[in-house]
Each structure stands twice: as C-alpha cells, then as structure tokens.
Fold each of these.
Amino acid sequence: MQALAELKEQIRQALPDLDVVIGWQQGYDALHTSPLFIRSEEDIDKLVVNEFCVVNPATYLREMRGGKKVGLVLKGCDSRSVIQLLQEKLLKEEDLTIFGFGCNGVLNHTKLQARFGDIGFITSLENDGTNVTVEAGDKKETVPFTELCADKCLTCSYPNTLQCSHFAGEESAKQADSATDKALEDFEKLTMEERFTFWQDQMRRCIRCYACRNACPMCVCKDHCLANSREPKWLSEDVDVQNNFMFQLIHVMHLTGRCVECGECERACPMDIPIMLLRRKMAGIVRDVFAYNAGTNAEETPPLMCFKVEEPTIEERH
Amino acid sequence: MACKFISHEDTNQWLEALAKDHVVFIPVDDGGSVTFRPYGEGRKPVLDRMPVRSPKEAVFPQNETLLTYKYDKDPEDPERTSVRIKETLPKERAVVFGARPCGTRGMTVFDSVFVNDRIRDPYYATRRENTLYVTLACHEVESTCFCHEVGSGPADTAGSDVLLTPVQGGYTAEAVTERGEKMLEASFFADGGDKCAEAEAVKKATREMLGEAHDFSNAPEALLAVFDDDEFWDDQAAACLSCGACTYLCPTCYCFNITDESTGTTGKRLRSWDTCMSFQYTLEGSGHNPRTTKGKRLKNRVNHKFAYFPDTYDQHLACCGCGRCIKSCPASIDIRSIVKAAQARSAQKESK
Amino acid sequence: MKANPVLPDMATIMEVVEETSNIKTFRVRFDDENVMKNFTFEPGQVGQLSVFGIGESTFVINSSPTRMDYLQFSVMRVGEVTSRIHQLKAGDSVGVRAPLGNAFPTEEMKGQDVTFIGGGIGMAPLRTLLVYLLDNRDDYGKITLLYGARTPQDLSYQEDIAEWLGRDDIDVVLTVDNPDEEWGKNPHEKTGLIPNVLKEINPDNSGYAVTCGPPIMIKFTLMALNELGFKDDKIITTLEKRMKCGVGLCGRCNIGDKYVCVDGPVFKYSELQELPNEL
C-alpha cells in the first residue's frame, strides 16, 4: 500500500525529534489492530493502516502532557479530536506532529458479529473497498462494505486527516453515503414513551466499566471524573438503570459542543450499547443552534467556550 | 461417569421444569450481545456464541447488599438518633445453563477464596450452595480461546454440576457432582447409548482445534523476576485505557468495593465489582497511591492471575482462558502475550 | 470464624478525646454485653469502624487487651469516613468489626529491650503495645519511647505521656520539627527529625525496635535502625493500605500475594524485604 510506505518514511524522518509516534499495529488476529507506540526505528515496521485501525490515537494524548513531543497517525475523524483539543487550549500545537492519510472507512465488529457470530470464529476477511468477503466456519459470504462499516463512516465528510503536518498517499475521495443520519432519524420517529423504554433497556445493560469514558479523546478529566467522586456524590455504586442513565447523561452533557463523533465510546462498549445516538443528537443540536462542527477549524472558538450577547446563529424570539 | 442423552426439544422442557423452583439463567441475545438472563418471558437460549458476560454473576452479582440500616430519631431528644442494621443473606435457588467450561471453571477460583478454612463468606457461600451449573462443552474455538493453556479444556468439568456436550439431535449429559446426578434423574434424560462415543469424539476434535498449548508453568517466577521492570510494564500497558471491561467480564476476577448507599434515613451497605485497573482502587485517604501508573495496575491484574493466586493456591492459575478480557478490550490488549513477554524477558535477564 | 465476617457489631461511643487539631480518640463499648465480655484481641490488631450511610474505615485498636473497659481508636481526619467519624459524640452509635489482622509478637519479645519509634498518628499502634508491655512490665527489658510530630500541639496521648514521664521504668523522648517557645525546656523535649534523634539516643541494638508513622518517616527510620545495628527480624513496623473488607477478600491491600489486612498490618523488616516492591 502506497500510503503505508510513505507514512513509514515520513515517521522515520520525523522520529528523531519526537518522543513517540502513536499509530496501529496488527492485533492478536487478522480482524484486530492495537495501538502502536513507536519509540525506535524497529517499531516503525510494525505500523499498519487498514480497515481495522479503529482506536483513536488522540485518546492517549491526555497521558502525554508535560511538553512531550508526540506524533500521531490519524484518520480524518481522529484528527478532529486533536483540533478540538487545540481549540480548547488543552494541547500545544508545537508539541504535535500529525501524520495524515486518506481513509476509506473502518469496519465495525458489532456488525460483523451480528452477521457472522463471534468475531473469533471468522477465519478470513477480504475488503476491496466496495465489498467485504467473510469466511466463518463453513460459511462464506460477500457483503457490501456499507453494511459492515462503522456508522460514522456512512455520514463521514472528513475522510482525509485535517491539519496534518504530513500527508501520505492519495486523498480519499470517499463521499458520505448519505447526508442524513438514518439511524437517528429512525429513532426519532419513535414516540417519547418508546424512546424512554428503549433507553431504559439499553441502560440496564450497562456494566459501568467506563470504557466509553476512557476511550473518549475528549474526556480529559482522567482519574478525576465526577462519576468516581464520593464527595460530592453524584452516582451510587448501584449498577442500575437510574444510575447508569445518570452517568451516560452526564457524559453526553460534558461532551456537548465538544464531541467530534469519532465513535470510540460506542465501539469501546463491551455491551454494544448504541450511545452514539445520544452524541449524534447533541452534535446535531449544536450544528443547528451554533452552526458549529466540533474540531474542524483550530482558529474557531467553540461556541460553549465563549459568551456573546447576541449569538449570530440564534434567532431571538421576542 | 454415567452418560445420558437429552434431545433439543426435551432440553426446553427441562428448562421449563427447572424454572418452576429456580431462577434459571440462560444465555440470551440481549441487544446484540449475549448475556445471562432468567429463563422465561419468551427468552430463547443462544448457545452458538460465547456469552459476553461471565457466569460468575449468578453467584457473585455486580451488586450484593450486605446489610440494610435504618436511623430512628429518639422521641425524647430529636438530636439523638439510633441505628439498626439487618443482615441480608440471599435466598434464591438458581441454575446457570449453557455457560462454557472456561467460564464455569472460574467459579473454582471463587470457591478457593470465599470458602476455605480461614473464612466463609456467607453471601457467596449461600448463593454457591443454591446454584447449579449446567455447562455446555465447546465444539468450536475462537481466536481468543486458550483454555488449554491454563490447565483447562473445551470439556472441562471444574465448577460444573452437569456437563452437556452437543451431539446430533441434542446433548449428552454427564453428572459431575452428586447434585448433578440428581438433576439427571429427571424423566427428560435417556440412556446415552452410542451418543456417548459421539460426544467423546466432539470433545477430542475441539481440543485438537486448539492446537498445542503454550507452557505457562513458570509464569509466577517469570512475572516476579520482572516485577521491578517498570519499562516492561509501562510498555505492556501503553495501550490500556484503564477501563474495567476486562475485570468486570472476567469469570475469575472477584475484587470488590464496599460502599454505603443511602436514601434519607435508610440505606444499604453494598458490595460491588471493582477493578484494579482504576486509579481509585488503591488510592488512600492521605493521597498516597501505591499504584499510580497503569503499568503498575496492569501488573497487578496479570500477577494476581498468573503469580499471586498460583503461589497461594496450589499452583492453579486464576485465569480460565476464556479470552473475554482480550475480546472486550477496546485496545485489544492480549493477556497471553503479556505473560509470554514476561517469560521471554525474565529468560533474557537470566541469561545475562 | 465469624458467621458473617462483614457484619459489624453495634457499639456506643463512651468518650471522645480531642488529641490534636485533626486527631480524635474514640472510646467505644459493644452494646451487647456478651459481645463485650467475650471480646479478645492482641496488641496490633485492627478494627473497622462503621458510620452507616458513609462507610467503614480501618483503625488500630490502640487500647490494650490488659484493660478491657473499652476499645479505643484514634482517628485522623483525612477523608469522607474519617470526617464523619469526627462529628460523632459520646452516646452515638457506631458499627465495629474487630479484631482483624495480625498482632505484634509479644511472646517472642519477652525478656528483650523494646524501642518504640512513633511519628504522628503512627503512635496509635505503638500505644497499644506500649501499654500492654507496661502492664506486663516484668516480662520485658528496657523500654524506650521516641515519639515525634510536626509541632508540640500535634503530639497525641498527652495524658499517657504525662503518666509515662512519671515512671522510672520507661525512657520517653519527644521530638518535633517545629518547636514553639515553651518547647525544649525539659530534657526529654528534642527538636529534629525522628531518624536523627533516634541516632542521637542510640538505643541498645540487641532488642526489638517497633516503628510506625508516615511512609517517608518509616523509610528513614528503617535506614537509621539498620545503621544502629538492629537485626532485620527484630525491626517491626505496621503498614497501612486502602482497605475495604478487612478479611482478605476484596483485593486492594495486597503487596504481592500478601494482604495487609490479614497477613499484616504488622510486618518484620525481614518480611518486608521478601515482598515485592509496591508500598
């Protein structure tokens, strides 16, 4: 792959001035990658870029404070979280080196699982960009990529890394499959009661492992999240619908106007709870009210981080 | 071990019968993931996927109320209150149906810790005594399966009362305990006949699918040899997000928190799953924390399973090889490769 | 073995002593006289105090088993539970789970000199052993106490200290980091860090040394004791870790395969050296 070779070369050149470059490496099987922390020349060859590079490397930035020079290999969606963090002045641009490339979308394990049984049963997978051919046990099936990719890829407008220092390979010409968020639209056709029932049932399944929170690049409170605070106490240790819902709503509210919809929370959830529905709803509201897309322009001040007597995008109702 | 047979149809009838006087936990499709939920309300067992949640929760639920308390105002002196507490021991009888041998084996780790000659935890002991495990042997393996490397196998009976093995038309059933033997007296079970040989062939074939087993027997020494090697542990934990998915879903992780949860003048003391991967877990009141980094925390999780537990309890690993921690890790951290890396690192150190 | 190791016994606070600005001592009795009558423990063992609705916390029982009128716990205000305990008054109810953990090797120490080195709240576990030894005075050799705190006002157990100073069968030396104008008028009042004062006192190194205090003080005291020639298996300390269950189940107080709540809190220095480095 052209882009990969170029990426490796760009990293090789930049590495002497960096403490670490974060990318992806082959995971424990063909369907998984895991984060790669490149600190030496030998590590560079471990880098992979494929449809399973799901983890957002920007998530590890919160551990890299203190003037560390960090390189990041980022997909378009991942790069938005870095820009948003820069907008919030939580990062210094001079500490970062971004390696970009054109992304053609990532596959979603939950969707693969729904179709083929446990991921671990899949023995081979081939993706030509349009179709995915999967072998599991004695089953072999070819499925359109759009049926197995992450939801975010269906509506993605940023397939190319934004604001990168280096760009490898050709730009992705991938177009959003649909301008509208079908899953969210379908959900909103439900009545209030139906929606509430839906969420109650989903929140019942939450085990409060906080994978969603910890996988979120925007959750910068790290070990001081109020979910773990006993004084003041917002949540009980009871893992029940009420407390789980409370936590998830706190999480959503703290991300409003900040969430870049990288989808890591939902992907990290071991229970496959569709919490991105909540995030996408809030991001939609922020787009409607403030005409703001989080993490797309480092020069812009996020609307909830400034006060204007008259918000130009809000029509006052007198 | 006597081998009996039960057809698929009769299995459903058997579950129906068991559900009359037990909560029967079966693996079901729960919003796309497979979890254990009580039989009934039209729920159908899903037996072709490994449950995401582990069978430990029938006996060691995520929340267990240890006691309830109530404050009463002194009518003479409203400034004064008195408090009464009430022990709340669990009572229900349960069956866990369709757990995999690895998951059920996890209960043997709990048994060693919670009921021994030093202590008997009455909450755990009561639930364990009242819960029967009807386990299903595997006929397929996943990329994350390594039961054969930790002293178990796809037809392990440890922790189970009955072991079912899938054969044409149903399951063979073998009693592992006396309680299991009693269960198989139900009219749904016929003599196994030639199904038994078929079951043995399934077990053998599945074991062969797993291939050769890596040898973890020197893991305790190897892990302790690299205990102070911070670089090694920081490296192994670099991708860790410090969430609790691995520990909460693990069939052998038993560490817990105790908190008081109150509503006005009443409340309960609650035991809840806790995770050693969290910063708060060892944070002391003074602000001191013996495990400030995620490298130190990951070390504790791995060492507990592959060094401390085997050192304390007759060399048994506190890992059942189910692979849940690997599969559910958002960063795909693989405990097998960590222990292997520690073995390699300590060998390297020794040869120097 | 208790039928339910996590179920507390109800007790009532008899008396509260304000030791310092952030340390209070609570004297409690079990409500059930039978429980009180049958209660036994050894010096060094700990107990969990419960305030229902807030939680439990671990404290050493710092009264001596030779004086069973009440159980005494000293509580430094640091967190959620300890702040709530500090609000309790005589007559209030608390839950008590005790005794937990191991104890000082009082049998083994018989006939030997014992040097106590306590810092701050670390005096609490020493107090129980010290009172026990004084109540069995003939069984033990020379007893020396070195007790230090930040300021004279941070020294707890003033009543005890006055009594000990009046006895001729125990040597008492006090030290503070920051003296006030009154401090130093008596020969037993020193100024300086505990390990330095310890070296100054230069106690006979053939006996036992028992030390407890903040981690940094313990670290340097152990070094000083080493320098003075005390044997590793005669240096005894008590450890503190975040604890929840107190009965070796919940997992958080482990150092390697040892649990501080059941295998400790009392450890010999020789035992500590065998443990992985995770204090």
Amino acid sequence: MSEIQTIVMPKWGLAMQEGMLAAWHVEEGATVSKGQEIADIETSKIANAFESPVSGKLRRILVTGGETVPVGALLGVVADESVSDAEIGSFVDDFQAKFAEQLAASASEKGPEPETVEVAGQRIRYLQIGDGAGAPIVLIHGYGGDLNNFLFNQPALAEKHTTYAIDLPGHGGSSKDVGEADIASQAKTVLGFLDAKGIQKAHLAGHSMGGGVSLYLATHHPDRVASATLLAPAGLGPDISMEYINGFIEASRRKKLEPILQMLVAKPEMVTGDMVEDVLKFKRLDGVDAALKKVRDAVFAGGKQALSLRDQLGSAKVPVQVIWGTQDKIVPAKHAEGLPGSVKVTTFDDAGHLIHMEKSAEVNQAILAFAAAD
Amino acid sequence: MAKKSYRQAISEALRQEMERDHRVIVLGEDIAGGAGGDAEQDAWGGPMGVTKGLLPLFGRERVIDTPITESGFIGAAVGAAATGLRPVADLMFVDFMGVCFDQIFNQAAKFKYMFGGKATTPVVIRTMYGAGFRAASQHSQCLYNIFTHIPGLKVALPSNPYEAKGLMIQAIRDDDPVIFFEHKAMYDMEGEVPDESYAIPFGQANVTREGDDATIIAFGRMVNFANTVADKLSKEGITCTVVDPRTTSPLDTETILETAAETGRVVVVDEAHPRCNMATDVSALICQEAFDKLKAPIKMVTAPHAPVPFSAALEDLYIPSMDKIEAAVRSVTGKSH
C-alpha cells in the first residue's frame, strides 16, 4: 500500500482549538500501530496520551515537543518504504497550503453547540453530534460530571451514529432540581429525554452513576434499550468512595479539589488546572451544592450504594457489557467479578475510574462493536 | 456557554438578584434617566449603560435616580441597608468618593462593630476606577487601596466578565458593605459567562496561570496584562504563575504566600500610585512571612506617584504596561532576551 496517511492534532471536546504536543513517544522512522500511544498532548482542559489513528511507518514528524498547534494541524506522516521522500515532501507542502486556507475559512465557523429540551418541566441540556441511521447512542455521565466528560468518545462515535450526550438533573446546564434524586428518578428523566427526542430505542453508554442509570434502564425498560455499555458503573455492588464523593462536594478551592479529582485517574497528571477550574465553576452555580448533596444522600445513602441490580443482570433482555479500570479508586473493579456469563467484561490494568477518557480508543471500539451488532 | 461583555455580566447579575430577592434595589445618578420629566425614561442606564433595562422590569420604586449628591444617596443606601434592604448604589467614579467618606468609613464600615455584631449593612457600592479612558486626573484613579485599609469594608476587583458576574452576586448576598470596583476600560471585554446565577466566594484568589520561574500577583485589569505577558514568556520557556486575588479585602494571603514560595521570584502589578498600595501591602506580606523562600528582591510594577495625566501620550506611559511587567519578570528571573 503506497498510501500516505496523516496524523493530525485531535479535537478533544468542543472548546479545543489548539493543543500542545508535549512529547513524542516514538521517533521518525519508527513503525506505529493504530491505538498505540505515540505522544502526549496537552490542552488547556486536559492532558492525555495520544493514540495513533493509523498504522505504518512514521516517515516524517512535523511538530516538535513543546510546540502548540491548531486542531487539525499535521503532526506526522505515515507511509511505507515505497513512497519516496520527494513524494512525502510534496504531500506535506500541499497539505500545509490547504490547511492554512481551511484555517482562515473556518475562523468564523461554529461547531455543534449544546441545546436544551424540556423534560417533565425540567430543562435538560444535551449535545447532539452525528446523524447516522439506526438507533442512536446516548451517553450518560457520572456523579458531578457533565456531557463534556465524553469529549474523547462522542466525536468518534458520531462518525457512524447519531449521538447524544446529556446532562443529568443537577448537573452541567440542566435544571438543578433533582427531584427524588435516586437512580430510578434519573432513569425516568433519561426516558423522558428519549421521548422528547422521539427516540424509540437507544444504545446507552453510561459512566459510574450514569452506568447505574443505564443498567436500570436495561433491566427495567428493555423495550427502550438496544444495548448498554457500563463504564465503571454504579449498581453492581455496595462499595463507593465517600472520600471522593464528600471531597467533591466540600472542596471549594482549587488546592483542595485537585487531589480529589486526581483520584479519578491512574495518572494524576491528566488533571489540568483548567479541568479543576471548570468543576469549581460548576459547583458555584446556584442550586448545585444542594443538588449534589441530595443525589449523594439518595444514591449513596449511609456511604453505600443504595441500589444493586446484580441479581437482575442475568435475566436482562438486552446485550450488556461492562468495562472497568482495575486502578479505579471510586467504584472498585471487583464489582465486575462474578457477573453472569451473558455479560461481556473487559478490564484494563493501567486505568482508573475515568476509563472512557483514559482508554478512549478501546472504549469507543467496544461501544461501536456493541452498537453494530444490532 | 454564551460570550458576554463585562457590562452585560454585571447587568445580568443585578437583574437576576433583583428577580431573586425583592429587597435588592439600585440607586444612583442617571442609573435609569428621565425621572420626574416627560422625556425618555431609562435613557441612560448609568454612565456606561450597565443598569439599562432594569427600570421597565422593576419600576421606579426599585430603580431610583438620585440627585447629584453622593453624600446624600450613599448615606441613603447605607441607611436602607441598615434597615433591611439590599441596595446597590452606583457611585459613578471612585474619584468622587471623597465627599461621602463619613457615610462609608465611619458609618457603613462601623455599624456591625459599634452595635455589638447585631447590625448588618448589606450595601454594595459600584464604582468605576482606573486610567486609560482619557478622563484626566479627577476621573482616573484606582483608590481601592484606600478602602482596603478600612476594617469592616470588603473590596472586590473583578478582572473579567466571568469574575464580574460571580463577584457581584456574592457582593449583593454578603451582609457586609462591599465596594465593587469596575475598570472603565473593561466594559466591552468579552468572555464566557454562564446564564445561570453563581457566586464567587470572597477571599479566594484565582490562579490564572501556573509556572515555575516567577509569580506575578496582579489586581483588576492588570491580571489580563499579566496573563498576556505570561503567555508570551512561556513561548520562550519562562513560565509564570499568575495570581488574581479577586478581592483585596478579604485578601487570600494563603494563596499569595504559597505561590510566592513556589517560585521564589515575585512581581506585583498594581495600577494604583506606588505609596501604600496593594503592591506594597503584598510585598510586605511576602517579605515578612516568606522571606526565606525568596531568591530575588520583589519587583513592584505600578503607576508613578503622580496624578493621572490628561495628555494621551503621557497617560499611556503612566499605566503599568505589559512591557514593564515583562521587564520585571526578566529582572527577577535573571533571564534577559
């Protein structure tokens, strides 16, 4: 295959316009494979390992460590030996010229923006990307999170599917009235959202508490669920780190919140100052403190998970898979043990609770494979 | 999230708090315009248009045009606060505050103390400060340091639209008198501001940049200058921490001392005159509490000890510039061009 493939600065989340290539893990001339971590990239919001989108020989590196470039800028070129250096040279020149034009043209262009819809008198914020046929994918965040938690997932999933990431009540840009606040009432809101958007059946992917919501829907409303991918979910055992939950509620300063958020990931350096600041901004909104406390008291009453659906999982009528990081400090990965054989379980040793961020390529693939099976 | 100007952010904070709490009123000169006459109502909305649009929503009982007598309407606001309302008075230019010092320093600031903690005075005084507006020496001063000096007053200096909305909401909900400083060169500055209400707690500094080589502590508009300098220098490999204290009273001494100690090289940027200003105050704090952590003398970047010039060329030289901040960082780090 004498094809020239590109590696460009990825777009992680709506707000990202540029990123810094902190360091390459590979050198020019190395052979890279798709999904291999080839570089560290830092944005103002997050620092993460960058996985190669392609396989082949890395013939050219165009951005050196420490450089900041716009989203879409050419980082490297992959091609096999049969392609001459001159061909690569002219390909790069051509790309750079076109990219400069694109950049100038897109300066005023806006990407997809979150919208809101009313569900039972409540404002629910969501972000829709993609317009594939078939059942859409609905992404549900965890405790204290919001739709932006799926920044590494939604764009990739949206290439083939219609995707919605939603803010649960009390979270993100949704109403701060959380009602009963338990998993069942959150699930009712998600059903209301599906109704409001005219979605009969959806593939659900839920993280943590959102995983518990997805699990509830898969077991209680199988007619509305095409499949469920549970990412470090609630609802499969009693344990929950109240050090994290209470720390998240109580920390009003960056210095206190940072170590709490670092509990979420295997590599603490993934948490940036801006990520901490964004959580503080959310926690300052009127009604959030009360909402977080009410959800805590309903979902994690007495320091234990209030709801276990483990026994109902075996008779679930929809395909369910569970993905966990064994370094999870919030909901332990041992909850993935001893599940019925019908449930596909995948674990990663080098990841923590934010499995969909830390292992985004693998999680995206797993969700897509599940969604393709129907 | 929607982009809003500094002006819109403050206006939205006022509107949302007036909707939330019927005790919140606004008063000042021309804050609506047209009171008692047949001409256009709500013609002004204050000198910068911040309060425009409140009159049709809340009426003359809660949006009160006052005579040009600062001593009178600031006194009225303080009295209204002491008797249960939550007034937001617009004092236009901080330079005019001199005529109502007694109402502020000796009355509003002292009620809680003099009445054994039984009285609260939840008044907010909004006021414009700062140079760069070609408004000459009687309309361009900073003076926040003077209010910071008085126990019993709180002083907020929002450095961008997000800060302006959150600090204004906190100011209105606070039970103590708050002097709220709006830089007149920043009203058109835009930034992301949530539509929902939120309060930013007083006395919590915001670390806007994180670096290893120097710590820049800056106030109000100067935070933006410091951020720009930090971004520029980071491209050369000189990285700076930038601290926006947000409020000068209460002052987040913990964050100031921690970030100063982390780099050991400190620049303090203050648009006020250099004697007895926030730069001297913060420098003295660091010298007293973290002297052993310093690796170089602290540099202060301030305006000179002179009235703000009317000459445009001289006014530009008068204001602490990004060039001066950059030179100060290079000086404390020993890293020249």
